[in-house]
Amino acid sequence: MRLIFRHRTNRGNNSRDLHRVEEGVKAALMAPRSVTLPTRANSRAVIWLVGLTCLPEILFTLIEASPFGGGNLRGTALMLGAFWNGLLNGWEPIYVLQRETMFITYAFLHGGLLHLVGNMVAVLALGGIAVARIGERGFLLLYALTAIGGAGGFALLSSSESPMVGASGAVFGLIGAWKFWEWQLRQHLGSSMRPLWRSLLGLALLNVILWVALSGLLAWEAHLGGFLAGVIFAAIVTPTMRYRV
Q1: Given Cys at both, which of 16, 122, 146, 237 links 229, Cβ 3.0 to 4.6 Å?
Q2: Ordered DSSP codes for 196-216
Q3: CATH of the domain at 77
């Protein structure tokens, strides 16, 4: 009798285990493979930030194309607003607090229209995702902190004495926050993480390709610093799906 009782108990356990496996398979099949985060298009904060960032490059381009010239306005702007590693290593600043303000001002200067357009298209695409999750003020704070993070990454990892400009540190900060939120949503829905890891691998390969194509002139250090700052910001400010700012 004891043997029969044990046998029945094992059969019961096996059926429950089989039921759990079936439920797990159903959940895996029902989980969405493609995950789309909500976005808020045409946010005022994003539009104004893009317009403000475009203004210097538009002025430089118009002045350089005019028959009257305008001196070396671009060069002056680079001296005053670009990120210079040398200023952290003994160079004398041109004005008070230049060492500090360059962690932000560099993000409003670009190396030409193509550089500017590429970054601003990314800001317009990603800014709405950030606004939908953390609001306009949260977006602006994220943008500023990841721009600083990008400059910090460049300062720590690069020994270049050339000026560093561009909003790509902040752009990669937006990407970092976006990918954290995607990971969060996939985990919540039980979706596969493979598309996320593939996208991150593609992002890394893109940086390698651009670095080679630009003969080493890509500030990948700023990209990495901005990306990590974006992930950290999102993890602190929105630690779970229910958090909204």
Answers
A1: 146
A2: HHHHHHHHHHHHHHHHHHTTT
A3: 1.20.1540.10
The pLDDT of 14-18, averaged and rounded, is 50
Determine how many CB atoms are found less than 10 A away from the CB of residue 85. 18
Quick one: which of 195, 204, 203 has its CA closest to 122? 203
User: Residue 29: inside a domain, yes or no?
Assistant: no
Inside any domain, residue 36: no
Asked whether residue 15 is domain-assigned, the answer is no
- What's the number of domains the chain is made of? 1
Q: What does residue 83 show for φ and ψ, rounded to 5 degrees? A: -90, 120
- pLDDT at position 215 is 87
The closest of 217, 215, 138, 123 to 175, measured between CA atoms, is 123
* Alpha carbon distances (Å) from 221 to 86, 149, 187, 197, 198: 16, 10, 29, 21, 21
Q: Name 44's Cβ contacts closer than 8 Å, sequence gap at least 6.
A: 136
Q: Is-contact 93 87, C-beta < 8 A?
A: yes
Q: Residue 185 is encoded by which pair of tokens? A: 């949503």
The pTM is what? 0.85
Q: Which residues pair with 83 in a beta bridge?
A: 164
**Residue at 169 is within a domain:** yes
Looking at per-residue pLDDT, the higher value among 188 and 65 belongs to 188
3-state helix vs strand vs coil in the chain, percent to 5: 75, 0, 25
The domain in which residue 100 lies consists of 43-237
Say how far apart CA 152 and CA 232 lie, in whole Å.
14
